[in-house]
Specification:
homodimer, 420 residues, alpha/beta, five-stranded mixed sheet, 13 helices, disordered N terminus, disordered C terminus
């Protein structure tokens, strides 16, 4: 951020988030419990809860006996208030999820992206088609949507909804947010998968227990989402987390960023397949022009005990461990979470060797303070994108205009399954 | 931090800091200006200022015309309320500074530490002697001291005041804080130079303008203090910032941490002298067993255009730039500040080539968002240690017991020169 000045409104929005996060964390909670858990004063909590009730975003569930005094109301998220959309746009697919306000899943729809589907207009059309499909499946009107969070690979300028650089598609400064908002006719909140999956962990994963953690995305690209002090850390221009482009080997392999020796060049999908090529140039596991199939074949072979595949995983774990040790030394996190589609394929095979490699490279004290684990949140990018839409919606609602007792008209969503 | 729960007291202390930082930043400020700059509500600011006035920590300076309404009082730090001590203990010296409550310098005293002065008891005796000398110079009683902040090299467990590991002295788990508090008879707040110099920058340096920055200490050891989102980032066990032990060269030079290829092994004082030894094993610039003299000779030779010395600086800038690029990519800071005694000697010679090297290794967008500069705060470790004592004192004062109008008895310090 450029200036130190935060406004009273910022503080109000931050406190509103804090109260909401307690509702999402607990499902059903009293004002006193929110105050105890959030550090806000009881009076502030009562004000903020009153506001959320008046807006219709929260609702009272039941009153419990307070032991002689006035019965205490318990509060929960008003799931039926409106819908949120989370979209995970990756190099090879679009995955869209439709949520109620409690981030319970209502419907989902997906599209494959072929290598030629690389223009902004084509990607927009796929997202629009997936949204129509999901709305139909859920029996919902578009008017019930409060916002769509959209994760796009690469570097994103979120305030302006601009894709600054999407390396695999060669996009530079594409006003993707505007294009998509025009097509979907809903507010769009654009960010990248590192920020989305870390937001999902903050609200629904390790963030319920921990303040300082890194969410590592291993895919075609590689990066780290950083939650520091209980909040998503974005850096001064929203590009924090480019761990994939930190140096692992000075003057090492050429990386697609133009640099050399980057972490990504050794532990991203193309880097892992390069280890395989280095060991066995003619390996039958290498499927021409199909990285996903090659990775799957590698995982199956390793599962079956194939020595070349196991050696490739050892190579990968060694580089990954060295790169993670740098994160552990620099940031002293409580947890490092491995996520992304390469982790889905290889994570459980890699994890034991990665832990050993981190221990070999990291300082003893921060290593002992850090847990390394696989992501437990399902579809974290789409869920996190939906959560970014929730945050955007909450930040956008202004002063309370509805009177208490006259809540804003909810969108009457069908009952959703509970949030993951 | 282990738990997410912050207490109302934490919030109160944090808000008190916020108000105090406005006083230190502005010298003399109205309640309205504090509210505007801090984002706290006017009512909260009035409460907090009232508390600080009642405690005697702040005082009202003058009333200004508010244009018809009630005249507005301006508030400042009550410099004479009590004294603070900041101690910079390094491998080769002890530097102690005595401050008034506004962090204005009252007196300072130093001691050289010889290689044999490496027991905790000897270091304590040097600090105690320096404090007595400074108190005498300032004409102050020990009873006027509110606390002493002490920076010790290596890893520190601050809550318990324990030196977990001081590599150069071979200290492991030394309860140095208790030893020193017993000897000095004042509360001691122990931390390391990374945390101290970053605290100084937060209160008195780039922190006045920026939220996200890294303070690089280049000395015998190397590390980074991290200010993220306007606060010192400590990590889960106060060891965040071990940038000196992130990997620059996989399987590279052996580092004193036991690892290999660490940043410190290439840009710490011994690493820089190793570049010199690699290029000119018999260089007359190398003074046997005197690292400081060798560094000084290298700086003088480079200033005079000596080609070997210039080549060594180019080597150093290249490694330093690659290491800083990793920080820039990962944390996307607004500013990177170079500090520490090696920077004092070589910083202005290194800076132009370092900037070029960072630009070569970092991603374009975060690089363009980052300024790289030399530290402008004088004696940042001692000043930062004094500020840590201030923070400790402020966190420790409890509920207001003094009535407004009956301020706590100030220590009647002599007039200090303004804070740097």
């Amino acid at each position: 951020m450029e200036a130190l000045v935060t406004t009273t409104r910022d503080v109000r929005v931050r406190n509103r988030f804090e109260v909401l996060r307690q509702l999402y964390r607990s499902g059903d909670v009293s004002r006193r419990e929110i105050a105890d858990a959030s550090g806000l004063s009881f009076a502030s909590v009562c004000n903020l809860v009153g506001e959320l009730l008046a807006l219709g975003v929260a609702r009272e569930t039941r009153f419990e006996d307070s032991g002689g005094g006035r019965p205490r109301g318990r509060v929960t998220v008003n799931a039926g208030y409106g819908a949120l959309v989370g979209v995970d746009i990756a190099e090879t697919y679009v995955q869209l999820q439709l949520f109620d306000l409690s981030l319970g899943l209502l419907a989902s729809a997906g599209r494959d992206l072929h290598p030629e589907d690389n223009t902004p207009a084509l990607v927009v059309s796929h997202v629009a088609a997936a949204l129509s499909e999901a709305l139909q499946a859920a029996g919902l009107e578009r008017a019930g949507i409060l916002g769509a969070g959209v994760s796009l690979p690469g570097q994103v300028q979120r305030e302006k909804g601009v894709s600054v650089f999407a390396p695999n598609w060669g996009w530079h400064d594409v006003a993707f947010g505007d294009l998509l908002a025009d097509a979907l006719e809903v507010p769009v909140y654009l960010d990248n998968p590192l920020k989305a999956s870390t937001t999902a962990e903050l609200w629904f994963g390790v963030g319920r227990q921990h303040q300082d953690f890194a969410v590592i995305t291993l895919g075609t690209g590689v990066g780290a989402g950083l939650a520091l002090g209980g909040s998503l850390y974005r850096g001064s221009s929203n590009s924090a987390g480019e761990w994939g482009h930190t140096r692992l080997v000075l003057d090492g392999r050429v990386c697609r960023c133009g640099g050399s020796g980057c972490v990504e060049a050794y532990v991203g999908a193309p880097g892992i397949l390069q280890h395989l090529r280095d060991r066995a140039p003619d390996s039958p596991l290498l499927r021409p022009d199909d990285q996903t199939a090659s990775l799957n074949a590698l995982a199956l072979a390793a599962d079956a005990g194939d020595p070349v595949a196991l050696a490739v995983l050892t190579d990968t774990a060694r580089y990954l461990g060295a790169g993670l040790a740098d994160l552990v030394n620099l940031l002293n996190p409580e947890v490092v979470i491995l996520s992304g589609w390469v982790t889905d394929r290889l994570g459980s095979l890699l994890l034991p060797e990665v832990r050993i490699a981190v221990g070999r490279h990291a300082l003893r004290r921060p290593f002992e303070a850090t847990r390394i684990q696989l992501c437990q949140v399902p579809e974290p990018v789409a869920l996190g994108a939906g959560t970014l839409a929730l945050e955007g919606f909450l930040a956008g609602i202004g002063a309370v205009t509805a009177r208490p007792g006259a809540p804003a008209d909810p969108a009457h969503l069908p009952t959703a399954r509970p949030a993951p």
